[in-house]
TrEMBL record:
Record-annotated membrane-spanning stretches: none
Lineage: Bacteria, Bacillati, Actinomycetota, Actinomycetes, Catenulisporales
A Pfam short name: adh_short_C2
Region span, Disordered: 1-21
Protein name as catalogued: SDR family oxidoreductase
Length: 272
């Protein structure tokens, strides 16, 4: 699996998708990281469809600008380009959001990288360090910035995008899975530390049809889907629906939880 942030748009899976709840996030503002495409963009779009104004981030400015425009333009969405593991970028995003929208209610930590595919002990120390800096360290940084700037005083919700590979071993992506396991633990730890006014939850997708996960399914999608109780791989919209639930008041008494969004893969003992 090559280095990536978020994922690319996936083709229509032909399956029923979660239906938006118009107005559920009216008046609220969300920050979604790694959201120029794939799961991040699907989450941002779902929140926007339900009334939120959104700020999205990604490394490359051009796709990010296009994504923000697709979400409704400057009155509804802004994009701020940069690296999630850069503290200056995180500070700039939070400042821009408060200047532009005046508040932050929801934070979705979606940015992730996995620059290597293979056994854990074959991964270079530099690659291990990068994976944990982006997948874990940056999430801590985003949550800290958002709490300091707004959530600590006003409350809100954080949703971390983990992975089924953080719940069970998965061939070829062991270091990535370890970083997601750390993110899952971090979710529970921060739920204890930041309650009662800030809720922190996570979703753990199995294989979702995005560019980020392409190496896991391309050329053998039907074979892989046979291990899923629901008979198909996931879509970015499947994940977005779960994130929207955790972010909403429908989950007002839920914190510190990780939901496997996996089409029933765990039932077969699978790791991805």
């Amino acid at each position: 699996m090559t280095a990536a942030t978020g994922g690319d748009e996936e083709p229509d899976a032909g399956a029923d998708q979660p239906a938006p709840c118009p107005g559920r996030f009216a008046g609220q503002v969300a920050v979604v990281t790694g959201a120029s495409r794939g799961i991040g963009l699907a989450v941002a779009r779902r929140l926007a469809l339900e009334g939120a104004r959104v700020a999205i981030t990604a490394r490359r400015p051009e796709p990010l600008e296009q994504a923000a425009a697709s979400l409704g333009g400057a009155s509804r969405a802004i994009g701020v380009a940069g690296r999630s593991d850069d503290p200056d970028h995180r500070a700039l995003v939070i400042t821009r959001v408060l200047d532009h929208f005046g508040r932050i209610d929801l934070l979705v930590n979606n940015t992730a990288v996995n620059p290597i595919y293979g056994p854990v002990l074959d991964v270079s120390p530099d690659a291990v360090r990068k994976i944990f800096e982006v997948n874990v360290g940056a999430a801590i940084g985003w949550i800290g910035q958002a709490r300091e700037a707004w959530l600590g005083k006003h409350g809100g919700s954080v949703v971390n995008i983990a992975a089924v590979a953080g719940l069970h071993p998965a061939e070829g992506i062991g270091v990535y899975g370890a970083s997601k396991a750390a993110l899952i633990h971090l979710t529970a730890q921060l739920a204890r530390e930041l309650g009662p006014h800030i809720r922190v939850n996570a979703v753990a997708p199995a294989v979702v049809r995005t560019r980020f996960a392409a190496q896991l399914y391309e050329g053998r999608e039907q074979e892989l889907a046979a291990h899923y109780a629901l008979g198909r791989l996931g879509t970015a919209q499947d994940v977005a629906g779960a994130v929207a639930f955790f972010a909403s008041r429908d989950a007002a008494w839920i914190t510190g939880q990780t939901l496997a969004v996996d089409g029933g893969l765990i039932l077969s003992g699978g790791g991805v």
